[in-house]
Design goal:
2 domains, Na+/H+ antiporter like fold, mainly alpha, 527 residues, elongated
Length: 527
Amino acid sequence: MNDTFVTLAGGAVIAVAIAAFTRSRGWNMALPLILGGLVVGWLPVGPTAPPDPEVVLVAVLAPLVFGEALGSSYVDLRKVGRPVIALAVGLVFATTLAVGMATRRVVAKPTALALALGAGRAPTDAVSVSAVARRAGLPRRLVAILEGESLVNDGTGLTALKVALLAASAGSVTLLEVGGYFALAVTVGVAVGGMGGWLLSVVLRRSKDLVAANALVLVAPFLLYVIAEELRGSGILAVVAAALVIAHRQNSLPGQSGRVQSAIVWRHITFVLQALAFFLVGLELPDVLGRLDGQAKVHVAVLVGVVVLALVVTRALFVAGMVGLNRAARQASLGRTYLRGSAVLAWAGARGPVSGLAAFSIPLTFASGDAVPYRDLILATTFCVIVVTLLLSLTLAPLARLLKVDSDDDAELIRRIDVMLARAALDRLSVAEAEAEEAGDPIPAEVSDRLRGDAERRLATLTASEGEGTSEDERSTRLLDVARAMVRAEQEELLRLRDEEGLPDAIVRPKLRQLDVSEQALRVERG
């Protein structure tokens, strides 16, 4: 049987079992999965390291990044756009150069390959950073910056890795050529992803067959990745751009029928792929270390310390410089709170499966047929760096508590939203009553009173009385029809509040999902 299939299928089963256990205990799944991979990797039987790096890149990394981007919000990203772009682009380049130059000091490898090591380590891990940030109770804006950075820098970091490998394959390239490669990869990747995301969102909006439409979205990341790569663009940027477009358009229309199913499906897929990615890191490590000689293992030990130090120092200096240049932030009434949040931001730089899968993606040979030198050294260093940074990420929550960086108190904002949604539902009920009256088919009083009473109880005002006089079937039918209209009014009001008042998607989307579930339940009852 094909080794790659055995690794992906068998590894996925073991990884999901470990992830399910850690999830039931409320633990972060990253380190247990890597440990599980290490144990399985040492065993004489079971899944082994995947032999084809390109298969791992397309089969695991592309849909993983797509799923993570689907859970992100363009609205929230736009609000923190400046720091996200600075970290996801500027810090990626700074990290690539810092790690590359530090690596050159330790191992006399070609500059392009040293930069490839830096580029692959530049992206932060969305899974670990997000989990730790939320567990630490960080402010919503800080969480949005960290999540936005970890999403966007996947594309920039892997694009930088691709350019570095092209340079290594060519032997020597000029700075102008590197800039041209990068500009082409970014432009084509974003263009392909934006167009693909728009087309898919149109299909989702117009299709009456939700199973087929969502199935199309499931296979889309693979096609978009291949198209972008064939056009010399960044496949990862293509899937990120497509997912952001789809997520934004899906969450911008009331009554989007496929929204709930799509969210559930991709939550499951992302969970499986995240677990598999961490497991593959541990699975590959014994095999890679076994291929290294004694001198190379010494180099790995030294490189891990050097790379981790370079990552921490570069991020701290970059964040400090970014804060220092942001005059508006200094002049705002944030004071020490902003500085404390910046300290947490500087420390939150865990690496994870994207860095591991990026290392996997380094080909065994160049297009010329020559073997890629130092590949095992890069892989071993990468996997060890991932473990160290994940261990360091466990100190983020204590640091946030020490600095007294607390989460936002959204209770009053959520209460105000609930009040406005209930009022919108009541207004829609009044309109429905007037329209029915004009049509000569008034809504039965018991139906109207029940719906009004539900909404008014949410406002803590009057409790409507129930009446009699209409058949049970008619009352139920009218009640469900008007109740759906009221839910639709709440959806419209919620989206209006987001678009006009700038409510964060972090609050809007959970509310929208609740309304989606309510509308679906009413649709099922209506038959």
